[in-house]
Amino acid sequence: MKKSKSKSEQSSVQSAMTNKIRFAAQLAASASGKHRVSSKPEPRKGHDERRKELRDSIWSDASDVAWSRHGGTKGFTTIPRLLALTTSLFRQASKQGDPSSVYWDLWCRTYDEGFVRVENELECAFSSGYTGARAVRTWRERMDQLEDWGFIRIEASGNEPYANVLIVNPLLAAARANKSGRPKPPAGWWNAFKERAAKIKADIPEV
User: Fold this and answer.
1) Which residues contact residue 36 at a Cβ distance below 8 angstroms, ignoring those fewer than 6 apart?
2) Which of 98, 102, 89, 116 is nearest to 187 (CA)?
3) What is the rounded distance in angstroms from the CA atom of residue 102 to the CA atom of residue 139?
4) By three-state DSSP, how is residue 163 classified?
5) What's the CA gap between 14 and 3, in Å, rounded?
6) Among 26, 126, 130, 191, whose Cα sits 20 to 30 Å from the Cα of 12?
7) CA triplet 65, 68, 69: central angle to 5 degrees?
8) Which is higher by pLDDT, 36 or 138?
């Protein structure tokens, strides 16, 4: 008769078998990992990156000639995307002269706080497109027009009647104009303004 194994021998055999099973499992996992296809999707390109790639596919030298506020470029400001529609209201509704160029010039002189310090009216008038003996007078008339419509506020400083200018949020000013009729928006303008605002996810304040 064969002698039965002692408890210590049985324990050694079980331990060896456990190690073999564990080693085999590790080999199988390692082998399957080499051929495994990653299920993670590739990161999606951002909107700006896709637009840049499209631009560069059309104009190969775009990066060299296009203006950009990135890369240390100076001399820029932030403007609302609805500014073009805002000035189109001025052109269509104005009966005594179009203040669009004055409004654009004010935006080009402000920073992100919406404040303009007018130090040279003659320079502002020329930048807005007015020359000759009536340049400053015409510029002042257009400034008064913008203030009357609620798109800017003006405060004097000493002998400078147009020294300090606050640019009102154009979305707020446009909403007030649509409600008051000053200036009266032409047919379809307000709907176009609202649709554009919704597209760019801009909130029009309630008035």
Assistant:
1) none
2) 89
3) 7
4) strand
5) 18
6) 26
7) 155
8) 138
- Confidence band (pLDDT; 50, 70, 90) for 32? low
- pLDDT grade for 123, boundaries at 50, 70 and 90: very high
Helices and strands, counts by H and E, the chain: 9, 3
Strand (E) or helix (H) holding 167: strand 160-167
Cβ neighbour number for residue 129 with a 10 Å cutoff:
15
C-alpha of 145 from chain center: 29
* Residue 80, pLDDT above cutoff 60: yes
Q: Do 73 and 122 touch, CB atoms closer than 8 A?
A: no
Rounded CA gap, 191 and 84, in Å? 15
* pLDDT score of 11 more than 60: no
pLDDT at 201 over 90: yes
The mean pLDDT value of the chain amounts to 86
Q: Give the other-Cβ count within 10 Å of 114's Cβ.
A: 15
User: How far apart are alpha carbons 95 and 198 in whole angstroms?
Assistant: 30
Structural domains for the chain: 83-199 (1.10.10)
For residue 183, give both structure tokens. Answer: 């200036």
Token code pair at residue 143: 């400034």
